């Protein structure tokens, strides 16, 4: 496990967490492309108990995926940075931290990539990360 911390671009929202660097992943799905405004999403998942906001209160957007399952997307209402996501439903949850907001992001290498079949055609092979066509 690795201790990390991060913040949105304007700094009003901050968090800290413990993550498993081996779980860091990329998602090329079309929802992630639209929600991030870029080619793919870079995420560090961690159990909710290992994640804590240290300042600020993010805004929320409820995304309903193709499977019908929902997830709440948390972002900064002031600067628009995407910070983390939490699935809807009961029971222990996994927080998906948007790894581009993690201060230690240069130390993180993705190990898996999902929805490779919708990756943009110019995205190179990412050899450090095992690829799956869907989830
Ligand atoms: Zn902000
Ligand atoms: Zn995705």
Give the SSE layout.
Layout: E1 2-7, E2 14-19, E3 25-27, H1 30-36, E4 41-47, E5 51-55, E6 59-64, E7 70-75, E8 82-87, E9 94-98, E10 112-114, E11 130-131
Parallel strand pairs: 3-10, 10-11
Antiparallel strand pairs: 1-2, 2-5, 3-4, 4-9, 6-7, 7-8, 8-9
Bound molecules: zinc ion (ZN) (2 copies).
One zinc ion binds next to α1.
Could you characterize what this model shows?
- This protein has 135 residues and is mainly beta.
- The chain has one domain: Metal Binding Protein, Guanine Nucleotide Exchange Factor, Chain A.
- 5% of the residues lie in helices and 41% in strands.
- It has one helix at 30-36, and strands spanning 2-7, 14-19, 25-27, 41-47, 51-55, 59-64, 70-75, 82-87, 94-98, 112-114, 130-131.
- The chain has an 8-stranded mixed beta sheet.
- A hairpin with a 6-residue loop joins strand 1 (2-7) and strand 2.
- The chain is globular and about 40 Å long.
Structural features:
about 140 residues, binds zinc ion, mainly beta, three-stranded antiparallel beta sheet
What can be said about this structure in brief?
The chain has 135 residues and is mostly beta strands.
Could you name the ranges where pLDDT drops below 50 across 5 or more consecutive residues? Answer: none
CATH architect. name = Beta Complex
Present as ligands are: zinc ion
Rounded mean pLDDT score: 95
SS elements, strand count: 11
Residue share in helix:
under 10%
Structural class: mainly beta
Strand adjacency order, main sheet = 6-7-8-9-4-3-10-11
Briefly note the CATH topology name: Metal Binding Protein, Guanine Nucleotide Exchange Factor, Chain A
Q: What would you call the shape?
A: globular
The string of secondary-structure elements, in order, is EEEHEEEEEEEE
Question: Largest beta sheet, briefly?
Answer: 8 strands, mixed
Q: Domain count, please report it.
A: 1
User: How much strand content do the residues show?
Assistant: 35-45%
| Number of helices, where a helix is a run of at least 4 consecutive DSSP H or I residues | 1
Radius of gyration: 14 Å
The termini sit apart by: 24 Å
